[in-house]
Amino acid sequence: MTGSSAAPERSGFAFSDEARHRIFSEYVSYLLKACDVFRVPHKHLEYSERELAMAVEESEIDLRAMLARRSPTRGISQGKIAGVLAFRLSRFKIVHFREDGWANSNFHLVQELAATLLVRKLFVQRGVPEKNILELSYQLSRRHANQETAGLFFDAFVVEPAG
After folding, report:
1. Cβ–Cβ < 8 Å for 106, 60
2. What's the pLDDT tens digit per position in 8-42?
């Protein structure tokens, strides 16, 4: 594993307690920021802590599978971890809108933008241009993107330690 956000365990990969805490505690603030970007009033949405937890657990399963296919000594890049987490946070039914929120033509991008903003904060040390974050959010929402292609996106912006 690379970075302080991941900690190895017997089965291969698990988010550290610190990373897990940050994911759960900061998700809501990035969800609200995503609503602000698209001018969706906060009162029009709800979120499921259970679905959020399931998305994080599924991310760990994906990362263990990825690690099994790769060299355990080399680990998984921060960008790949970010991509897997962004993908799973975009796929689970975490965000729910009340009927009043359906009128906003961008409400379908809120969950994906929240996911990409969160993982950018947790795993990417360099700035990712806002237009690229919006593009990835759209790709996750309306086009075909998987965990590893999302990981490639973040790999382009992560500063890995020399070695």
Report:
1. no
2. 344 578 888 999 999 999 999 999 999 999 898 89
Single-letter amino acid code for the residue at 60: E
**Residue 95's Cα: distance from chain center in Å?**
14
Residue type, position 52, single letter: L
Pair 84, 13: CB distance under 8 Å: no
Which residues are paired to 46 by β-bridges? 96
Structure token pair of residue 14: 């698990």
pTM of the model: 0.82
Per-residue confidence (pLDDT) for residue 58, from 0 to 100: 96
Q: What single string gives the DSSP state of each residue in 95-152?
A: EEE-GGGGGSTTGGGHHHHHHHHHHHHHH--S---HHHHHHHHHHHHHS---HHHHHH
Q: What percent of the chain has pLDDT over 70?
A: 85
Tell me: the pLDDT tens digits for 137-154? 888 887 777 787 888 888
**In what helix (H) or strand (E) does residue 56 lie, and over which residues does it extend?**
helix 49-69
Q: Quote the tokens at residue 76.
A: 């998984």
Query: CB within 8 A of 141, min separation 6: which ones?
Result: 90, 108, 109, 111, 112
15: helix, strand or coil? strand
Q: What is the bridge-based pairing of β-strands 14-15 and 6-7?
A: antiparallel
